[in-house]
Design a protein that fits this description.
This protein is mainly α. 79% of the residues lie in helices and 0% in strands. The protein is built from 9 helices and no strands. α8 runs antiparallel to α9. It is elongated and about 85 Å long.
Length: 192
């Protein structure tokens, strides 16, 4: 602000000399880049990135649970049906743990948190599974979709853990989720 006031008090020749200085040019370029960054990318809407990531993770869990619950009744393989039931139970328990952690966050942290991942399964997954149901290929397509979503959950969990090493309670929860997801992936890969 003081610099802006000084520039206003300068005459036009002094301003021209000031603008020609390398420090003024570099400062102007940096200011321009920062302004463009805020214009194009925004300020994040005041969201806490950790809270948003946790909310997205719980939504991913719920979406996969919904997929399993909606389609597992129509599969033929008894082993796959059993494994999907176990996956659904463990995902539900993990989701409840994530929700408990999220509810323990302060109201200021949760304020204005908008998840980018929706609670409902994506249209790509549901349309693919609906087509597989019609073509009598639901078992392999559901297994493939569940494995793919479990891998996405595992990746998201590891990213949150990497981004928040200073939160011990969260890291304990994430370690449990990673272990559970690895177990579920192993279980799903057993099914032929």
């Amino acid at each position: 602000m003081l610099l802006f006031g000084m520039i206003l008090l300068m005459s036009s020749s002094e301003i021209k000399d000031f603008i020609k200085k390398p420090a003024a040019i570099i400062g102007g370029v940096i200011l321009g880049i920062v302004l463009l960054f805020f214009i194009f990318f925004g300020r994040g809407g005041g969201q806490d990135p950790m809270a948003k990531s946790v909310k997205n993770l719980t939504n991913r869990h719920q979406a996969l649970i919904t997929v399993i619950d909606n389609y597992s009744g129509n599969i033929k393989s008894a082993k796959l049906k059993s494994n999907l039931s176990q996956v659904s139970i463990i995902l539900t328990a993990d989701k409840n743990d994530i929700d408990t952690y999220y509810s323990g966050l302060s109201k200021d942290v949760k304020k204005n948190v908008v998840a980018t991942y929706k609670v409902k399964p994506t249209k790509d997954i549901t349309s693919k599974l609906d087509e597989a149901k019609i073509s009598n290929n639901l078992d392999s397509e559901l297994r493939s979709s569940v494995i793919s979503e479990l891998e996405a959950i595992q990746s998201a969990t590891q990213t949150i853990k990497k981004d928040n090493p200073d939160k011990p309670k969260l890291n304990v929860l994430l370690d449990k989720l990673i272990l559970n997801t690895q177990t579920l992936l192993t279980r799903m890969n057993e099914v032929n």
